[in-house]
Every structure is written in C-alpha cells, then in structure tokens.
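Lab notes, practical 5.
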Amino acid sequence: MNRSFEIYSDCQDIIKRLKEIDKDYFVVYNLNRKTFELHNRAQEEGTFCLTLPFDTLDERTIDLTLRTQSFKRDELIKELDAENERLEKTRKRNILNEMEARLYES
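Output from the prediction step:
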C-alpha cells in the first residue's frame, strides 16, 4: 500500500515557488520510500514528474525542477549525450591503458 501525503507549505516557501513556475505542480511525501516527489496535475498520464533526491525541500528542488522541465528536454538530452560521450572516451582510454600495461608486463 502506497502511503503518501501532499505538502501544502514549508518554511522556505519552496511549494509556493514551485507553483510560481507552474500552478499545477505539487509535492508529495512518500512515507514508504521516505522521499519527496514532484507531481503535476496537468499531466495527462498520471501526475508523477520525478522523485526529489534530497532529504529536505530547499533551493536544490527549484533548480532541479527548472532543469528538468519538458521545454528544456532538448538541452537536457544534449547534456546527457555529451556526458555519455565523455564517459565512453574515458572507458576506452582506460581499456587501452590497461592493455598497454599488460603488454609491457609480458
């Protein structure tokens, strides 16, 4: 059974600031997972947007929300692609270094 409740206010006005970004945003605290979740009432296929990876509601919540909004999708995909490319280059370089070290050992 999923137990959760909506958060209507907080001491840093994060909920209020989220509603300034989008009036349909709301935050739920999931008691089972002990996490905050961002939801949007205007979404057609369920309200869930994302699980907030923070123990408290603070400025990071606003930053993450702004960063992951759907209209920024293309920018976010480019960032992810660039990071994946960087990781792939690092992985290949590490493999080559390991092979080179084994050749010197033989």
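Observations recorded by the TA: Residues 73-105 form the longest helix (33 residues). The two ends are 59 Å apart (CA to CA).
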